[in-house]
Write a structure and sequence with these properties.
11 strands
Amino acid sequence: MEPEAGQLRGEPEHVGNRPPSYPSHPLKRPSVRDADEFAALSPAVLLDGAQIEQLTVRAASVRGDSHNWEGGCRQDSMTVTRIGPPEAEMLLLAVADGVGSAARSHEGSYEFSRRAAVHLDREAERIHAALCARAQNELQILATKAVAGAVAELRTILEWSAHHARRPYADEDYASTLHVLLIPTDPRIRERVLCSVGDGGLFVLREGRWHHGSPDNSAELLDTRTEALPHAYNSVKTSLLRTVPGDVLLLGTDGITNPLTQRDPEFARRLAEAWGGSEVPSLSDFLWQTQTRAKTYDDDRTVICVWEKQP
């Protein structure tokens, strides 16, 4: 239930009879003296948004309950930007989830989500043309090339950084999933493309119900739990979808997509009510709604939603 105007929101809401046992607010955090400056200086919460032509974006990445309790850093990351020239411009949204067992996956998720955007920008004109032609094979080739370029570039940088810090380098230390959604800013183009490595992914809110956003190969996308950058993947999976104004697109890490698909529909219903109305939530409202809690789902949570103004 939304608080009345002027009231403090207080603790995030929860589904189920009782809230999770972890406190909902950040507790300890890493220290610079722990020999991992990146972790020590990473904020517990990221909040972002944009208004680009007919598209409105809200984005949040929050440290999970377990990391709040243990004092670990947020291993998720996200990117919201534009790529391509004016005639082939696309909104790029990316979420990345550092693998929990990987020592520096928080750094990997941060770097991969950003460098993938730079390399996808270099292929933007060809991606835009392939998207308009619904050429999914070409899109997969271009996405795989861009991500491979980002991986090669980052491997060089990360190896140098490890050598400079006098510690060994291993690909698996930086393991991260990655999902990138590309949306043309021209409202006449209805196609969108999802590029994926690993779990998490895309959902579409339509007429009050959540649907998997990859109808052509959703089973394949959902069967990628062991895949991760920079080494444990074969290619970037791509999925084309066509949307209509009024749809709400949700791109997220498994911290949001897992509870969204749980058997108890309460979590999905809460977010559908919050994000499926006629008004786009403010940044602060979106952050509070993103933090809706459910027992056993204590992972970092990153979610980017896109609303398209109806004509």
